[in-house]
Every structure is written in C-alpha cells, then in structure tokens.
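Encode chain A's predicted structure.
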Amino acid sequence: MHILLLSFLLLVSSAIAQTPPRNLLLVVTDDQRFDQMACAGHPVLQTPAMDALAKRGVRFTNAFVTTAICAASRASIMTGRREGSHGYTFGKPPMGKSLGDQTYFSQLKRKGYRTGFVGKWGVRFEKDALAGAIDYRSTPGQPYLKKDRPHLTSIVADRATEFVAQQSAEQPFCLTVSFHAPHAQDGHKDQYIPPPELASLYEDADVDVPPNAVGGFDVLPEFLQKSMGRKRWAWRFDNREKQIRRTKDYWRMITGVDRALQRIVASLKEHGFEDNTVIVFTSDNGYFLGERGLAGKWFIYEESIRVPLIIVDPRAANERRGTTNDAMVLNTDLAPTLLDLAGVAAPAGYDGRSLMPLVAGDTPAWRSDFLYEHRFDNKDIPKSQGVRGSRWVYARFDEQEPVYEQLFDLQTDPQQLHNLAKSESHRKVLKDLRARCDQLLQQ
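Encoded structure for chain A:
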C-alpha cells in the first residue's frame, strides 16, 4: 500500500515538474472602447479573433482605466499604480528606477522569464531604470503608411510573431504587443489610416448618428464645450459625411488589429505554445466617436473610461470558457494579474490586484468604486478627479473658478446627461462622494 502511494506521489511530482512553463501574452490596443467588438454587441464590426478569445476565456464587461490618456494609462498598466501614485503623464519627468523595478517586466525577468515588448511604448523611464528588464524591444511608430513599408499594424504583428518563433519551451516568456491602432494619426487629413486591403470594408454599412451628439453637448459646461474634445470633434466628426467616413475608417483599423491578433495567436499554436500561454487583451482607454459632440477621451464618461478586457487561461475549466464577469476591474489590475500567473508576489506599492480569482469563478470581496484622475497640464484638457461607483459617478474640476462638480446617477441616467450636483435632494450623496474622493486620493 505504501509502495503504491509512493509511486503515485512520484508520478504526480513528475507530472508537475514536467508542466510546461506558463507563458504570458498581453495585447493592448489604443483608443478602443468597451463596445467596439462584435462579442460586445457591436452590430457592424468584424472582430473574429477578439470574439474567439472571448469564447475561450472570460470577458470582463466592467473594465475601466483610472486615467483616460495613453501615457498615464500605459504607465498604470506597467506599474500597477494609478496616476497619482506613479506620477507620470505627458509633460512629466520620466519614471525612475524604483518604479522601473516594480514594472511587471522587471519582476518577471527576475523570475526567469524572457520578456518582449513590441509596438507603441508611450511612456518615459530614466536611463537604465529598466536596464536588462526587456530582452526584446521593437517600437516602430507612426505614420501608419510609409512608402515601401507595410501598414504599421502589420509591422507590429510581424515583430510579435518573430519573437514567438524565437522562444524555447525551456524558458517562459512574457510578450507585450502594443498596437497604435485604432488611434488617429492626428496630423493626417484623414485621421484614421486603415490597412489598404481593408479600404472598402464596411462600405455599405450603416453608421448611426452618434448618440447625444447635440443634446449631450448642450448640457456640458462651457469649459468642456471649448476643450480639446470639441476641437478634435471638428477634425473628425463635424458633418455627417465626415462622421460616416471617419467612423468606418476607425472600424477598419480595429478589424486590421483583429487580423493581426489572429496572426499572433496562430503563431502561438504553430510553435507549440497555445496550450500554455495565458492571453490578456485590452485597450489603454475608451474613446468618443462623436457622442456628446466630442472626440478623444480624458473625461469621466463611460465612452472615455471603459475598455475591453478578455483573459484566456488555457488551463481553465470548460465551464469558465466563454463567460462574462461584471466585477469592476481596472487597468491597474493587469500587472498584479500577470505576476500572479507567474507565481510572483505583487509589490507593496501596487494599487491593483490580481484578477485570476475572478477568472477562476471565485467571488472574493471586491471593489465597488474607484478613483478617477486626470492630471495632464494642458490648457485645452481640464484636470479632473472623481469617483466612479456602481451607481453614482462624481467628478470635480478643481482648477475651474469656481470649482465645477458633476454628479450622475447611472441607475436613472446611464447616459450621464443630467448633472445632479446642484440638486437639493442629492446633497447627502454629493457630500459623501466628495469625502470618498478625498479618501481615495489619500490612499
């Protein structure tokens, strides 16, 4: 009996020892909001690769960024910290070695992972802050189309598949693929530059007038009506013909990313990594496509702060595949999730937490609100801070004279059109959320 038990334990031990290393693939798009995928209910978009991930994994329906701008959001993804903690956005000094050491790149490198980064970098670190942390780094940039060069999305996919092809089954890897698309090429007359082979895709598709394009704009305070969001709206959506053309090109860029994603996933299968690679798919922030008479992001509206998030763990039980989860999850949760998958404890300074218990179907105590902040020094993008909860959304623009506040009830006003900040019957809610915002800022 003892011999049989010993034999069984040895077999189990041997099986565990031979378990393939757990590889990690993080894919980040740029300016793709939560509803811009077929699997999220979009009636036009063709996103078969994203949809396939959703069928294999868990799609989070309430995923948010804590700051809706690429520099701060990407820093949050890398460091597991909100903007007020890592301190980085456009115009700020580069992040130092202490933050570099806490990035998931550095943490995984110490664990023995081979690390790669391909695509849009979007942040700055001091020299040597990430020394030795990233084994393979390739960051081709805009323009999307250049003479005698493939579309930028294709180049990013090429570099990603090259990295996968170079990997060994003996060493785990973490590859971050950061697409520029569907972000506009701001200085270009056409703004959105899809791959040429997709130029006629969606040609006959219907494009709706953006919801609340007029009414939503009319209820904005004057300083938001004159903000960068309105200026970029004029670049992209200020007449119906332009709005249709720009929206279709934006969709084409997303489908371009989807085809590139399909190539990367296929390369995992080709080289034997499909069954031992966890895939995380998300975006760095949401996007206004003319809603509220705006373009861009930056403000605490759902279109701006809410993003897609899909996690595929090939070891997950069958009943967990193709499921959705409505927990409130954040971009700051991505770094601790990657570390958890590698068996690495998250640094004490992280604001986020691992999502793997949710992926597994557990129901741990979870957040019901989060701090939103936007600290970029730009005269056309008003700074703000606020709280997004399960029902209430609070924002304050504290550099305005006087301070301007917003209060929205998502239960009765999911479009966030009716500001209740001056409502006598909501004075207690407003007071409580002011205090909650102050409390979160101190954490």
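Residues 240-270 form the longest helix (31 residues).
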